[in-house]
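Question (not urgent): is this output format expected?
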Amino acid sequence: MSVRLWFSMTTALALTIALTSLGIFLISKLLGGLSILTAVIIAVAMIIFQWLIAPSIINLMYDLKPARETSYAWLEDIVADIARKSGLKKVPRVYVAFTDIANAFAFGNIFVGKKVAVTTGLLRILNPDEVKAVLGHELGHIKHRDVEIMMALSVLPAIFYLIARWAYYSGLFGGIRSGERDSSGLVLLAIAAFSVVMYYILSLFMLWVSRVREYFADLHSADVVENGSINLARALAKLELANSKIIGKIRDIGTGPLAFKALMISDPERKVSAPLYGSIDEYIYSLANKRISLRERIAEILSTHPLTPKRIRFLLSRRGS
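Got this back:
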């Protein structure tokens, strides 16, 4: 396991929890515990509800079909083999989505079980070895239980979002008496502003954790799938090229499968330049050696996924390790 990855994940989680604790402490000093407790309860309830209904929403959006009922039943054998090598007690169920978007993702919960889905768009452009490497990545998410980690973390910015709304409206309306704003109203508006800042900072930290978990899933594929490093690198390059063309034809980015960007194996809205010549291996090596611009680094901070050149560089460094 990469020490650097463990350090990044530990640091991100520690800072997220520490900042949340500090923010709640400062607000509670001004308000007392009741309002904080209410926000926590509401936020937790909202996230749990979202977690419970998410598999149904995803199934509806992608119109998923069990792989065994399609011409892609062979995917079940691949997933079963990777699950065994990963040490998973239960083999995730495999589904196929008939869409041009090239993607694969893991989802589910304790009630419906763990599931893996692959789109026909992906199956058309990847060879079987590359498909296997992608599935190794997705089972890495299940192995690491990072979906549950992200769900738990999503409670934290939600708490400050709810506090901000409550404090803003309480300060705006409850803090005005006889046409003059009293001190309690100003305090509430200050708390609202502080909570908004905390919400955005914690959201950035969550994106950081999301990017690190993608590296962990990449590493899992490299470790459990034969030639997983190079095949996943090839797959990532092909998927990004394919999706950059497909997304350009879609007008309404906010609806449909693209609304769940975290479920994509790479950022679907990231613009890339297609290679002018050469093989896919020449292309991925050119990506690995690509200089990352300042603009790209800033854009990455706001993304759920690391830059593909950085992921490919990481994967190629794992070859033979």
